[in-house]
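User: My advisor asked me to double-check a structure prediction for histidine kinase before group meeting. I don't want to rely on an old file, so could you generate it fresh from this sequence?
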Amino acid sequence: MTTNKRTLEKKFRRYVLALIALIMLLITVVYIYLEREQARHLIGEQALTTALTVAEIPEVKQALSGTGNREQVRELIDQIQRNAGAEYIVIGDRDGVRLTHPNREQIGKEMVGGDNDDALLYGRSYTSLAQGSLGEAVRGKTPIRGEDGSIIGVVSVGYMVEYINATFLKGFTVFASAILVIFLIGMVGSNALAKSIRRDTFGLEPYQIARLYKERHAVIEAVSEGLLATDQDGRVTLLNALAKEVLQIDEQAIGQKIHHVLPNSEIAAVLQDEEATGQNEVIVNEKRLIIYYQIINEDGHYAGKVARFQNRTELQELVNALSEIQQYSKDLRAQTHEYTNKLYAISGYLQLGYYDEAIDFIEEETGTQTRDDQIVFEQIQDPTIQAILIGKRSKASEKKISFTLDSSSTVEWQWPAEAAAPLVTIIGNVVDNAFDAVIGRDKPTVQVFLTDIGRELIVEVADNGSGIAESIQTQLFERGTTTKCGQRGYGLALVKAALTELNGTLEIEDNQPSGTIMSLYIPKEQVGERSERNDSRR
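Assistant: Sure, here is a fresh prediction for histidine kinase from the sequence you gave:
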């Protein structure tokens, strides 16, 4: 369907030429009207001037008063008519009877046209358009006054309308030629402008540009990063939905200076600096953002800058989730290795003839496995928590740690997808800390209890480690604090951040030297409400 659409170049050329033609037509119509009126006015003024001159000739006054030679007056008037280029000069007496006329047969007859009254009755001088004996003409009329000032006659100087039109057409021919030249110049100019616009749009047609714009808008809104762009003057030109939400600005920011939109902001300062690029980390509206700046280059000149940013907390959650997945993969490999060792042990018992020992070993392993599987798969309904427990059970088996799940544990509520990563971080790190705490004990044991009977998910992790030293209890959740030599101490700091996101809390009961109990409390309602809000926004 798009192949039948007119190209931008053709469409632009047609529209521009049509506009030029329309403008030329309107100019021509206005020109014709104004020029015709002006021509009639000028010729009327010329006729009136001639009439005023004739009215002051003494011979004319004498002829009208009966003391002059009328034939000489007629010859004089004929000469003036030829010199003035008028079609006729008619002199009438007080009653409007012709004293002179180009056609001698009309002498002595009454003047026609009905436009003598203003001159004969009221003594006015004027121009008029009237139908005379020779045809329609523009006339200049004025009264002739005697020595005592009384009106004794009238002078009528006429120029035929055909003469006026012929004079107008001579001027219009020149005007029409100029209009044609202008139109041709407009054609050349429109063609050059159309080609220039086509180059500026990279040969794209309007419908292609419209589609690209829609696709660009969809892509910008679909990306999981906030996007903010400014031009070379520091005005906001692009803003996606995530940027509006994170920076707490709206669509009205488009076109405004960035320092007005984000006053006293490090982001605004960097966007206004033509040289600043790279990565930066800032805090905006109590959110820690990682921002990447990129300069827009247009033919070697600075044309603005783009800032794309992500919430550092979300990135950290993603890293944590990936770390846990990698750990689960290692745990599964360890579990495979552990079962292989157990199969070797069973094989050894059988080869040595210790059949009773082999049966006891198998029953012990299958009994423990069956009990734990029953709790995990029948009493724990949430798949994320199931995965955590299975992975940690395998890891405990590899480390020779007794990992037991309280038989009264129950989790019936399934947590929303956005809570999966925080749950992995919270439960996984707490259990790992318990494992680390019991390493080296005679009978390392870690016990886990879970329930969500009330409004909260309660997770208790107990170990028989050596407990937590009083010197680090107050700094336990700070980044870098650890009870393990040579470790970085990020685990509980991540647990605290994830608990904060889920509005949860953590309590530590230190029973030195018999171990530690960590209790986690995570409200179900607030997580569910947040999930519903996210769904409504989507």
